[in-house]
């Protein structure tokens, strides 16, 4: 009986792969979590560590997808190309991929894409410097980009600076230098920015990428409405420069080493800005700023 059940399960999967419209059972068979609306599959989430050509071909047939989330280092250039038929995608989250810079050109298939989240992208992959992010400039609706946990630095920021359609950019734990932030001045439509500290890079200087000098650059981004600051040592004088942002309405700070009295002064200095500040404990300072980030 067990042999018959295994055979039937395999038949469901093989049949679905060859079908133009895969069924729910076949997608669940490969471990995918799905969400439906109006009888159509609109969201799919899966770990792709064990995926091969057949699994990506199966997902590539779900042309009604609006949101796709894949985690696993088995995701490479050819796998992204295999999904080019998912032209209705509005949101993509990828965690732990092995895409090359050249592989990013395959994102051009997703002309409806509004949000792209890249976590731990192509870590230690010699064919990824971050420059490939420039391929995303052909996506007219792309408004939100997250780039976090990459062994890539200034080249990635230079590429992001070419994505003039962006309205929101979030980044933390990459390998950028203090100069990288200047590339973001080229984003005329940016309304929301989340910025965190670089991770200590192997064999590289431990110079912080985010400090008081960074705020003097951010203060030039006149279109900013929301700002989220993380993992830095910041003075009141540097934070007060944010008063130069005419549209700023929300400021968040977490794991930021600034005296509480200076935050209160800042609130008075910026009366039209909602300031959300999480006090930094001694334990958090040691864990995040000292031990992890080497500040």
Describe, in short, the structure shown:
26% of the residues lie in helices and 21% in strands.
Description:
With 295 residues, the protein is α/β, with parallel strands linked by helices. It has one domain: Leucine-rich repeat, LRR (right-handed beta-alpha superhelix) (Alpha-Beta Horseshoe), CATH 3.80.10. Helices cover 26% and strands 21% of the residues. The chain has helices at 2-18, 24-29, 53-60, 77-82, 154-160, 212-218, 236-239, 260-269, 282-292, and strands spanning 33-37, 40-47, 67-71, 91-95, 115-119, 144-148, 168-172, 192-195, 226-233, 250-257, 274-277. An eleven-stranded mixed beta sheet has the order 1-2-3-4-5-6-7-8-9-10-11. Strand 8, helix 6 and strand 9 (226-233) form a beta-alpha-beta unit. The protein is elongated and about 60 Å long. It starts with a helix and ends with a helix. The model is unreliable at 1-19 (pLDDT under 50).
What features would you highlight for this structure?
elongated; Leucine-rich repeat, LRR (right-handed beta-alpha superhelix); single chain; eleven-stranded mixed beta sheet; 295 residues; alpha/beta; 21% strand; disordered N terminus
Break the fold down into its secondary structure elements and pairings.
Blueprint: H1 2-18, H2 24-29, E1 33-37, E2 40-47, H3 53-60, E3 67-71, H4 77-82, E4 91-95, E5 115-119, E6 144-148, H5 154-160, E7 168-172, E8 192-195, H6 212-218, E9 226-233, H7 236-239, E10 250-257, H8 260-269, E11 274-277, H9 282-292
Parallel strand pairs: 2-3, 3-4, 4-5, 5-6, 6-7, 7-8, 8-9, 9-10, 10-11
Antiparallel strand pairs: 1-2
């Amino acid at each position: 009986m067990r042999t018959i059940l295994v055979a039937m399960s395999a038949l469901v999967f093989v049949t679905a792969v060859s079908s133009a419209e895969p069924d729910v059972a076949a997608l669940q068979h490969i471990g995918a979590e799905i969400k439906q609306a109006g009888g159509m599959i609109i969201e799919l989430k899966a770990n792709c560590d064990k995926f091969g050509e057949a699994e990506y071909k199966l997902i590539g047939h779900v042309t009604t997808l609006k949101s796709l989330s894949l985690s696993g280092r088995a995701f490479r250039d050819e796998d992204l190309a295999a999904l080019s038929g998912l032209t209705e995608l509005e949101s993509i989250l990828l965690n732990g991929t092995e895409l090359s810079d050249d592989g990013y050109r395959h994102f051009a298939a997703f002309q409806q894409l509004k949000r792209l989240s890249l976590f731990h992208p192509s870590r230690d992959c010699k064919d990824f410097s971050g420059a490939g992010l420039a391929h995303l400039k052909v996506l007219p609706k792309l408004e939100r980009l997250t780039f976090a946990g990459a062994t890539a630095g200034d080249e990635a920021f230079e590429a992001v600076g070419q994505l003039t359609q962006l309205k929101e950019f979030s980044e933390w734990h990459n390998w950028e230098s203090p100069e990288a932030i200047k590339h973001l001045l080229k984003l005329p439509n940016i309304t929301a920015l989340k910025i965190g500290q670089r991770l200590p890079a192997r064999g590289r200087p431990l110079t912080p990428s985010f400090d008081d000098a960074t705020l003097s650059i951010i203060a030039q981004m006149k279109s900013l409405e929301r700002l989220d600051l993380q993992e830095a040592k910041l003075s009141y004088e540097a934070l007060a420069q944010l008063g130069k942002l005419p549209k700023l309405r929300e400021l968040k700070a977490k794991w930021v080493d600034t005296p509480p009295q200076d935050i209160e002064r800042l609130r008075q200095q910026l009366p039209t800005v909602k300031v959300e500040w999480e006090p930094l404990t001694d334990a958090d300072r040691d864990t995040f700023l000292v031990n992890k980030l080497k500040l």
